[in-house]
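Honest question from a wet-lab person: if I give you the sequences of every part of a complex, can you actually get the arrangement of the whole thing, not just the pieces? Trying it with mine:
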Amino acid sequence: IAGITQAPTSQILAAGRRMTLRCTQDMRHNAMYWYRQDLGLGLRLIHYSNTAGTTGKGEVPDGYSVSRANTDDFPLTLASAVPSQTSVYFCASSELAGGSDTQYFGPGTRLTVL
Amino acid sequence: GQNIDQPTEMTATEGAIVQINCTYQTSGFNGLFWYQQHAGEAPTFLSYNVLDGLEEKGRFSSFLSRSKGYSYLLLKELQMKDSASYLCAVTGSNYQLIWGAGTKLIIKP
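Yes, you can. This is the full assembly:
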């Protein structure tokens, strides 16, 4: 593994189902982030983690949860998917937290909720 | 409030120069990032400006004016591979990045 990986690459999901998007980084970065990207809108922060064991809410956290049990992994869970959660989801990491360090992005997960 | 404005789309000719503008309002400014995103791919880092002025990096340069809440990305000697979206991002009041919607740059031969 080099950098950040995400799984799955794409997924079609029935509304009401539970889904976990996986994100793993091997750079030993302290901070990790989940964004969603929708056409015509900028990247919007869902949740973030400044260091292992801590998480915080971003701009659009409703309907999503995260955990950060260790440095490398930062899964995003949709407890009960709704069509408005159809989007491309990007995981990112940075060595330092605080918004002034370069963020490195995973390849993304394209999620469709029907 | 917090917001970032960029033009939605720009068109330029191969070999030419293009300037992509970004204006922002934020209460927690720590610096301004530019990222490049090719269609269907992840954003990749281009530049980071903290101080006023121009920073040059090969064919790409980025300018920042903190007093005006303004930045631009200058791309010289345009190549077809520069066709992509260019994203501007600044630190928001919660010390997380807020992102512009991106400028789609179309390069014509």
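Two things worth pointing out. The first strand of chain A starts at residue 4 and ends at 7. Chain A touches chain B through 24 residues (CB under 8 Å).
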